[in-house]
Amino acid sequence: MNPNPPENRGLTAIDGAMALIVILLIVQIWLLSATLESYLAGHREAAIPGAIISAILFAACLALYRFVDRIDSDVRQDIK
Amino acid sequence: MSWFCKPSSVPLWRDEFPVFTAGERYVSRRQFTKFLTLTSFGMLVGNLWILAQSWSRRAPAWPRLRVAEADEIAVGGVKTFSYPTAADPCILVRTGADSYVAYSQKCTHLSCAVYYEKARNRFECPCHQGFFSIADGSVLQGPPRRALPRVALERAGGQLIAIRVEAENA
After folding, report:
1. Of A48, A62, A79, the CB nearest to B51
2. Looking at the structure, do residues B103 and B35 belong to the same domain, yes or no?
3. Closest Cβ–Cβ partner in B26, B39, B48 for A75
4. pLDDT per residue over A22-75, tens digit each?
5. Per-residue pLDDT tens for B76-123?
6. Strand B139-141 to B99-104 pairing
7. Ranges of residues in chain B whose predicted pLDDT is under 50
8. Residue A55, Cα to own-chain centre: how many angstroms?
């Protein structure tokens, strides 16, 4: 019995990418709450770095999504 | 959308509704990843909204308002007034023969009206026992975390004029 059939090849990579996205999201949630609290306390200078870092985190999430999408279509074409 | 998803030769319905059971694991993971990415986009929008708010907010133009005659209140005496609008109660205290301080009367905790406690020379919020310094409005004790906004005063002849509010987040 094959422990890793071909249809499961990409699942580990996809699960790893999902775990990374979740970690990035946790950081982004913290960043949003910290920026909001800072803004409400009158420190407007935190808004620009907050937005830049949030954009970088979103770009990383988008790249990981594209990675997942690519593996998904590659593997499922093989399944067909 | 080719920059977002890899172009596929198969029809969309087959991409989203797999025929084989093995493909379903991929589709559910891809859709969950898409949901997470959209959540990330939502948080980026939130950060951009904060950025837009911080850019669009301008410093307010403060009116000049005659608060009191300089000798109208005794040393240790108090007068309340509203500044800059009628909905912003403030408190003026004569702390010495020639020194006056004025602060917003709204507690920075839950907006109860603070009063001057002459015996201990400090402001007190009776709702939750918050205490503020008379010198700079800073929190001495209690649940408030921010200082009382200070009303800047100007002496014009025998009159005290309120010219602006100096607050952390004004």
Report:
1. A48
2. no
3. B26
4. 999 999 999 999 999 888 877 888 999 999 999 999 999 999 999 998 888 887
5. 999 999 999 999 999 999 999 889 999 999 999 999 999 999 999 999
6. unpaired
7. 169-170
8. 12
CATH code for position B95: 2.102.10.10
DSSP-assigned states of every residue in B22-55: HHHHHHHHHHHHHHHHHHHHHHHHHHHHHHHHHH
Residue A60 lies in a domain: yes
Contact B40 A48 (CB under 8 A): no
CA of B170 vs chain A CAs: smallest distance (Å): 7
Contacts of A57 in chain B (CB under 8 A): 40, 44
Beta-carbon contacts of B126 under 8 Å, excluding residues fewer than 6 positions away, are: B112, B115
Whether residues B25 and B77 share a domain: the answer is: no
Indicate the helix (H) or strand (E) that contains B14. Answer: helix B12-16
